[in-house]
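Entry 12.
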Amino acid sequence: MYTMCSSSLASLLALSAVGHSMPAACSSGGGDLVLNNFQLYPENADYDPNSDLAFFSVLYNASVAVYNPSSNSFEENINFPQTMEPVFHASGIDVDATNRKLSVLINAGVAFDTEGANVTGDNFLYKVDLSGPERQVLWGTNLSAVTNGAYGGCQDAASDAAGNTYAVCTYPSAILKVTPDGTQASPWYLSNYTAPGASPVEAGLSGIVSVGDFLVGPESRGRRLLRFDTRAAAPEPVEIPIAGYNASVWGSSDGAFLPPKYDGKVLLVSDNTQGTIVLVSTDGWQSATQVGFVPKSSEEGFSVATLQLRGRVYTVNEFFADAANPKVAGTNAGPRAQFPLQDINKQVYSMVKSYIN
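Predicted 3D structure (tokens):
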């Protein structure tokens, strides 16, 4: 069952201008939520426990919506130079709670729209300061310039303890390392599975998380989990052996997330068309166990990410099929105004409790 605040579509349309506050999901001690925000179309999300705010990437508007669970409202939008430009999408969101920073990936959407047939266009990483009362964009860097446009679809990021950011590109797999001040960006890992001129480019890494000295992420093409050592200058990907592996639910991987409540031992991998893969590791991700799978509850929606909000774990749903319908006049997206967050907290805990207790 969903819990919702009541808001008419007409009122949501009136509030749809960038930066306007909108009614959001009703708070709940448990159960699914519905975010009421015209054209939110979230591709990823993360929560900052320091400010008690959540951040949702607004896919088609190339911006970030700031959600306050206390007031059940979206307080503001964080905008970038590409915001409201139809060729750009907002994808990855990563809160670095220790350093009080937010990473945001703005990419050329054509790579995803064409499923790798066209990987041209620029991809950007932005860093936002979360330490003050106002969210300020500190810097941005053009990731495409690092590889001369050879790697596209940059859609996720993770930070290490030193504040370095690792941005993941999907078409084909690449990880680009950016210094804390954004002044230096380098090709840290570049895959070589794509022949020059091949089209479409096969999808590779789709998400990334940071745990200890390692980065861990799902790879679409191999239906597998890879580990990278951040202490290496030029790392080689290492496939993580998975006990209880079930390839049937690894058809279209997307976001990866380590719920903070499980101290880096539980990894959730979103499969677009099916739901959420639940994995556990008790040896620092030298190996893993696939302990279960939570099917998505939305028939229309695609599972794109997971989010821990005030201690509960939710699946973020995206509605890519809306893009096939006429856009609302004067906007970049369709008319949807309600976006469900599927509460999977109990299911995940029931699967992992025997491993973490």
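Annotation: Helices lie at 9-14, 110-113, 345-356. Residues 1-28 have pLDDT under 50 and may be disordered.
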